[in-house]
Every structure is written in C-alpha cells, then in structure tokens.
Amino acid sequence: MTLQPYAAAWEIARGIRGGDLLASDVVDAHLARITAINPQLNAFTDVLRERARSRAAVIDSQRHAGTDPGPLAGVPFAVKNLFDVAGQVTRAGSKINRENAPATDDAELVQRLEAAGAILIGALNMGEYAYDFTGENAHDGACRNPHDLSRMAGGSSSGSGSATAAGLAPLSLGSDTNGSIRVPSSLCGIFGLKPTFGRLTRHGTFPFVDSLDHLGPFARNVSDLATAFDAMQGPDSRDPTVADRPFNTVSAKADRGIDGLRIAVAGGYFDTDGLPDAAAAVTAAAAALNVHQVLDVPGAAAGRAAAFIITNAESAALHQGRLRVRPDDFDPDTRDRFLAGSMLPAGWLVRAQQVRRWYLEQVMALFRNVDVLIAPATPFSAPAIGQKTMLLRGEEMAVRPNLGLFTQPISCIGLPVVAAPMETGSAMPIGVQIIAPPWREDIALRVARHLERTGAAKVRVPDLLPA
User: Fold this and answer.
1) d(Cα 390, Cα 188) in Å, to the nearest integer?
2) Chunked in runs of 10, what are the mean pLDDT values of the chain (467 residues)?
3) Residues in CB range of 277: below 8 A, 6 or more apart
C-alpha cells in the first residue's frame, strides 16, 4: 500500500492495523512533508521528530506482536501550542510563557488520542493567548493559508487549520472560545468540531476564558473527525466543567443519513444579505439538504455582546499579573483588549451572564421544532495577511473581531457545531456551521456527512503546495 500525501486518518489506521503500512514510514513521510512545506506556512512551532519516531516504533511492535494498536493506529496528529506536551514549554502563542518550565505531562486529550494509537508530531502556531481570529502572531509570525499564502489562516487555532488543510497532519486539535476552531476551518476549507461546552476535558491546556473555552478536533473528512472525537470523550474530575454523562459515541452514527431530521437555516442575525461569500456557502448547504425553512434566532446579537464582555473580563483577570509587570511583552492589540477588560465594571459581567442564560433559553425553544440549524461560519473568505478592515454589508469594518461575527453567538451558549467546507465555486474556501442542541454532536456530524457524501461539502487539495 502506497501512502498518499493527503491520506485520511482512517486509511492510515486501516493500513497499519492490516499490516500494509508501517507507522514508522507514515511518520517519516509526514515529517518530510513538514520539512518541505512548513517554511511556507509557518503552521508548526515545534516538531517532535524523536518522540514521534519512538512512538511509531512502539505501534509497529504492537502490530507485529498481534496487538491491536487502536482505532487511530499510527495516525499523526498535532496540537495548538496551548496544549501541554511533556518536555515542551506550553507557550500559548505568547512571548512571556516561553520562559516557563517545560510541561511534565501531556494534556489529557493528547494522552487519550495516543491511547487510541495516534502519534503526536508537533505543536502548532496560534494567536497570542488565543485572543485572535487572524492567525497573525506577533512573536512567531503569521500562519499562512495553504490555498493562498498571502491570506490569513484564521485564528486563534491558525496552525491547526493550516497544517490539516495542507496535509501536514491528518488530525489536529485546537481550542474554541468565540470561534477559534470554526473560523480556521472555514478559511482553510476543512472540517472542525466544537463540541458541547463541558464535553471534552480541558485538563493540561492553557486557559483563555474558563466559562467559554472548548477543545476539539480538525480533520479533512467527517469520519476522521468523529473517530477522534470518540477517542477523546470521557469524564475527568480535574476539569469541573466536564459533565459526568455517558458517551455519545458518534463515529458509528455519522453515516445514518438525514432522514427524519428537521433542519432549518438560521435567519435574522445570521442573514447573509450583502455577504456574497457567506451567502454562497449557506445556499449550497441548503440546496444539498433540501432545506427551505428560515428561522430567526432571537437574542443572537445580545448573546454576542455578552460574549464580548465575558471574554474581556475573564481573560483580563487571568492576565492581570502579567499586564502589571510585563506589558511590553504582549502583542499590543492583545494587551489593549486585556487592559480594556480589566476596567469593566463588575456589574457588567453579572449582567452579561444573565443575558447569556436568557439567550440560551431562546435558542433552546427553537430546538423544540428543529433538530439542526445551518448558519454561515465566517462572513467572508480569508482576508489578506495584514488587512485591517473589510466591507461588511456596505460598511468598512474591522477584520479581526468580525471574523467571529457568526461563531461568537453560538459558543457563548455552548452548543455543539460542526464547521463544514462548502463547494461554492469560489477561489477561496468558506464554510457553514451545522448547529445542534447540547450533547447532540452526532446529529451535526450526520448532517456534515450527508453534505460530504453529496459533494456539497468538499475539502480541496491546495494548488500551491506539492502533492
């Protein structure tokens, strides 16, 4: 069996478990690709060559001994550099953190993926302290979009989106507080999953906003996304937000189709008039799903406003000590947002949490009548690196905050979302959000799989990069 550069995780695992591939060869092929391509993308900040090769040798030994290495046998993966990796400094995209001592243990989700047979090959570029939608890191440099190297990869999980889209890793992990999985997925043209808040443990990761932070996977197909998600599920007493619920195993459910599902397009706040890229993506999804119903989502604008306040206030409190003693070592844009958050009145945060609860009630009322909502993921495809403003419904608006225009109201209330790349005929990718009720990742993945199977959702091979 010959390994292809954009081989899916499931193809790699099947080849290794069946004896047609060696994990060592798979790892070496991906490391060689990183060496050749990463200088163009700046997606990886740390490449773990010796660790990956050592782990691959273990997988090959297990297979030779007749032991099943697991459902992700030999599959390379990489993580946003806010995940702890034993022996590496958890930099979280910052200058200040890189002076810390190396982590002594891997983050729990890293351990769970490796227990399923996957192999960690590196850590990935990101926006400083995850407060970013562009992928332009002031300390490590901008992460570039593999479909156009002059354009943004999206943030803050920029390296995760770029590396996965470019075939440097079949799977990657990122975090999503206000859209940091879904924005890079949309701009780089891959699948991403932001699970329900509290579904996946965050133990062993550097926080941003405790009441909004989610972790989740990126992949180039729905099957890989679902398998990785299943491998990471489970309670963890060290993260008090992780609900002690039974597994909702999704990998066996993604192929069930959409018969019986009630699907609607999100309207009102999520309307795409004046946003041609976003409109094309939503129209393509609606046509493939044969959906004609449009439902207003009441309270979305208020929910986004609440998310802004919660984000500002909580993150500023986390970084207060660093701001006092090392203000000049922050990206100035990040520092200024933290400083603004530190001056918010306490009553505003209380009110924002009240609005958040009210908004969740409004959305849950919608889910009495529908099972899934389709919404745009980003208002436009990837802007140019360094671009500060863009026309948004006829007005000149700042790029950085408004890349999260459509994602922020959804993460504010913790709903599970699959970002799916839609085939629109445009030169650059753009995606939609497939939004389900809490704990129903399986439904969102079923819809994503239908879109993938019909060809409406499609991951492109970047033209600029060698096959």
Assistant:
1) 19
2) 89 97 98 96 98 98 96 98 98 97 98 98 98 97 98 98 98 98 98 97 98 98 98 94 80 88 98 96 98 97 97 96 96 94 95 98 97 98 97 90 97 97 96 97 97 97 79
3) 378, 379, 380, 381, 424, 426, 428, 430
Tokens of 23: 């994990």
333-355 as b/e: b if 16+ CB within 10 A: ebbebbbebbebeeeebeebeeb
Q: Which of 80, 157, 223, 411 is catalytic?
A: 80
Round to whole Å and give the CA distance between 448 and 225: 10
Of residues 158, 160, 172, 180, which has the active-site annotation? 180
306: which 2 tokens?
């609440």
Rg, Å, the chain Cα set? 21
* Residue boundaries of the structural domains of the chain: 9-454
Domain 9-454 has CATH 3.30.930.10: no
Q: Is the peptide bond before 156 cis (omega within 30 degrees of 0)?
A: yes
Catalytic residue flag (residue 156)? yes
Which DSSP string do the residues of 305-343 spell out, in sequence order? HHHHHHHHHHHHHHTHHHHHH-GGGS-HHHHHHHHHHHT
> Which is catalytic among the residues 24, 156, 251, 315?
156
Q: Looking at the whole model, is its pTM more than 0.90?
A: yes
> What residue ranges in 236-311 does DSSP mark as E strands?
263-267, 294-296
- Please tell me the predicted confidence (pLDDT) of residue 245: 72
List the beta bridge partners of residue 383: none
What tokens does 32 get? 């060689």
CA 320 to chain centroid: 27
Question: CA separation (Å) from 27 to 30, 66, 169, 364?
Answer: 5, 21, 10, 44
DSSP single-letter state for residue 153: -
User: Which has the closest alpha carbon to 143: 257, 130, 156, 131?
Assistant: 156
186 is catalytic: no
